[in-house]
Design a protein that fits this description.
There is one protein chain. This protein is an alpha+beta fold. The chain has one domain. It has 3 helices and 7 strands; from the N terminus they run αβαββαββββ. Strands 1, 2, 3, 4, 5, 6 and 7 form a 7-stranded antiparallel β-sheet that branches. β2 and β3 form a beta hairpin.
Length: 134
Amino acid sequence: MALLFGEGDEPEGLDGELEGQIVGKLFGIPEAALANPLMKIDPTWRGKSFDSRAGTGLNRLSPIAAVVMPIITAGYLGLRHVDGEMEGSHFEHAPDIGLIEPRVRVRALDYGVPDGDVRLIAYFALRRPVGSPL
């Protein structure tokens, strides 16, 4: 995965809802022991929504996230129910150089975590929903 990531380009035009998929498994965090078996039953994470003008976004999750996220993420209660999904984990985004090798241009997502806590926990892929306009 790291080699594939290193060959990628910074995504442009991120706006609206994008479907997502974790590529492989979560790693490098204690929560992975609980989250990875759950993702075999229900992928839970459905993608991200981006507001390109505001430079903000959020994660979109399946409804089961309302029950499991407070357990997996030590009490996180910032989810809300919207159109059959759960939304939460707000972030800011902007072009930047990646903090993890190979330091390529990326669309950096800032969840407000102090820099000392930056860590790679997963690779993921995003795509526009089939049939949606470019």
